[in-house]
Amino acid sequence: MNDRKQRDGSRHGAIEREIRADRKFSLAEAIGRAADGGHLQGASPVTLLEQAQTTAMQFAERQLDDPDGALLTLLARTVRSSEPIMARHLDQPLAGLVAVIEKLLGREEWLVDFVRDVDAEWGRRYQEPPHFEQPDQPTDPLDPYTLASVRTALQQLLAAARATATRSSTRP
Asked: How many Å apart are CA 124 and CA 157, to the nearest integer?
């Protein structure tokens, strides 16, 4: 059996050398040879960071009740722009999502800016003027994204992500 494999390997090598004899060397050829040697075997064309970001956002999509989608869009943008945070949690993307949400909720100014961006996104989607909240003014009853509603949604997502991250980190 081993002798047969050697003969097949030798024959394969001879055929390959004959085919390559008339080819000019190119970058594509080098990449093809590298792939044939198993150098790229099993590698994903998607980076680990992108995989972590995608996993985090898939979780957020399942957990958040956001029929208009503006909150999810801005959260995805925030997760993508938080590369250093997500890079520290490549093996636990939900822990990265927790860190991003905690950062958003950690400073009132950041949350206010985030809600303003969500309102602007909603306005672009529906070609309507956004309902920006004004300090010391009552909230507009037509505003789908108030500071309070976004804070509550993010807190609920944070709690769900923490619970799921804790469960997955305790599994063997």
From this structure: 25
